[in-house]
Design goal:
Number of helices: 12
Structural class: alpha/beta
CATH superfamily: Alpha/Beta hydrolase fold, catalytic domain
Number of strands: 8
Shape: globular
CATH topology: Rossmann fold
Largest sheet: 8 strands, mixed
């Protein structure tokens, strides 16, 4: 009976996860997506698709530049990073997000990166390095167009939100474009393996050791994990652990009915921001699962707050 219940639980999770992932990855055709859509034309901006950045697998990025921009003044960039549980999704998932913020006057970009279903050893460390490489490429490309970028924000949904947070908290000062703030929805914030039991089952990961290796690329025995020897490796890829008193302002939102990302993730991130006295705004979506589709009024508030952040923290 216990085995039957466990199987049913996994099947239920897969169903919820699949539906939520499809919604979250692209938000295509969904109600949230309609809040982002703009009447895109050459008077709004220009899109440059499938541009190259340095990486091992030929991944590319898309760049969107608003029309009528004053090239004599430094501009600002918003980099969108797609979600998909680190194993799916594409830069096209960020098209509506990018066009929305481009219409508001900001340079935007959306990037592809290594996925665990495609690349062996696609750890969060690899993904983080690809984000950095992409930022270098965006800066160089814009300079070729005669555009200077004075600051940037990273943003993302789900797994992309994790990468956005990691980059903002780790590279705010060392990035070729200084990070001024970060905003994200439903991002995993900590990768302590004990928190991710059902996800390990769904992904066919049998042990904490396998989970830590998939996220960090480092191998630890079960005994070493029990002794806490994996903590440093996990800390390096866990946004909530990277927060410090110098971290950039953060805007985040989480669904209170999320069955994909454990509820403690939002608690860990908010606590870290609060304890370190970081400027932040946290929005709860009380009726939403991982797709964030059931609280459109709060999603609209999130978008408006993100524009407030642009006004406050971009010079």
């Amino acid at each position: 009976m216990k085995k039957i219940k466990a199987v049913m639980l996994v099947i239920l999770f897969i169903a919820v996860f699949t539906v939520s992932a499809l919604i979250t990855v692209a938000l295509t055709g969904s109600a949230p997506n309609r809040l982002l859509r703009v009447d895109w034309n050459e008077e709004v901006g220009t899109e440059y698709l499938n541009l190259e950045y340095e990486n091992d697998y030929g991944y590319k990025y898309d760049l969107y530049i608003p029309s009528g921009m004053d090239k004599t003044q430094p501009q600002n960039l918003i980099l969108f990073i797609h979600g998909g549980s680190f194993n799916s999704g594409s830069k096209e998932d960020g098209t509506d997000w990018c066009k929305y913020y481009t219409a508001k006057g900001y340079i935007t970009a959306s990037m592809d990166y290594s996925l665990q279903t495609v690349v062996e050893g696609a750890t969060l460390n690899r993904m983080n390095s690809e984000v950095l490489s992409c930022v270098y490429a965006i800066k160089d490309r814009c300079e070729k167009y005669g555009i200077s970028i004075g600051g940037m924000a990273t943003c993302g949904v789900s797994a992309g939100g994790t990468l956005a947070l990691n980059f903002a908290y780790s590279c705010a000062k060392t990035s070729p474009i200084p990070v001024k703030f970060v905003f994200q929805l439903v991002a995993p914030a900590d990768f302590e393996p004990s928190d991710w039991g059902i996800l390990k089952k769904v992904n066919g990961i049998k042990t904490d050791s396998e989970f830590v290796e998939s996220m960090t690329g480092m191998k630890f025995t079960e005994e070493e994990i029990a002794q806490g020897k994996h903590e440093e490796a996990v800390t390096a890829v866990s946004p909530a652990r990277l927060v410090n008193e110098k971290s950039v302002p953060t805007l985040c939102g989480y669904g209170l009915r999320d069955h994909v990302v454990p509820q403690n993730q939002r608690e860990l991130l908010v606590k870290a921001l609060k304890d370190n006295k970081v400027t932040y705004d946290y929005l709860e979506f009380p009726h939403s699962n991982h797709g964030m589709y059931a609280d459109l009024d709060i999603l609209q508030e999130f978008l408006e707050l993100s524009l407030d952040y642009c006004n406050k923290y971009f010079e």
